[in-house]
Fold:
Amino acid sequence: MAVLSAPPLKRLSRPQSGALPPLRIGGQHIAMVHAVAQARFLSSEQITRKVGGSHQKNLRRLQRLWAHGFLDRPMQQHAELAAFFDQGNRPLVYALGRRGARLLADHGMAIDHKLDWTTKNKQATAPFLAHTIDTAECMLAFDFDVRSRPGLRLLDHHELLEFMPEATREARDPFALHVTVQHERRDVEIAVVPDRLFSIVSESTNTRQNFALERDRGTMVIGTNRTKLTKSSYRRKLIGYAQAFERMKHTQAWGFQSFRVLTVTTSDLRITNMIAAQREATNAPAGLFLYSTPKRIAERGALGPAWTSARADNVSLINS
Structure:
């Protein structure tokens, strides 16, 4: 039986101050720290795909950024995180460190440099790390596809804040949509918070398509009409989005005229079950919810015909 390989503890323990490698901050270092801050957690391999350049040189840069406290290597990945990934040696996972937050703030980037990022990183669970890295993988696919199409631009999550209403920008959780629905003769409040909110801008037409991304790892119960809305389920999430769309909560909270919910899940069978739950639980327009898998996206492109709705298969997000 193959053994899951986890990074040795010494790879997660910073060197003593007297043994720190030399570091001179340059543009590539700042780009790497910014990429990690945007995603919350990224693997070294994902960082290179995001910022470009030689992977070996980037690994050396990451080593120095970590050693000097600009980035963290979450300890959870030593043993626990391996259980949520494929077998074999995995690249190290990085998170924003205290000095990295200060670096970004000094360069005019919106970041809370007063927050204790190292403590926040330690509090994250291994499943949360795995889910965040999977979400980042989806966004890398969108980023790659957008870059390959002239005239398109990606606005990712926090970049959207400046376009949102002032009340939303000042809210504790600006990315949440809140609705109250009737269930068993009582009010139930549902809050849906996308794993990622992003827009694709067409510079030629000055139009924007808005998307709420949900990265489903197959661990959440989909649910049926017998599933209580007070319990966590994907059905509850579908109802929340559908009701928010119907009541124009997306316009009120995010300033969006419209949006679509993109679910990336584990298999075509799970997509079939999700669509069945959607049909049973909501009267939402068929195009509001679109579903795909990492395999479909890899084969057809994130913007290409990788998506399925309740009405059609092979749906593209952007018409070529």
Observations:
- The beta strands are 41-43, 71-72, 93-96, 152-156, 177-183, 186-192, 196-202, 207-215, 260-264, 289-292.
- The chain is about 35% helix and 15% strand.
- The first helix runs from residue 27 to 39.
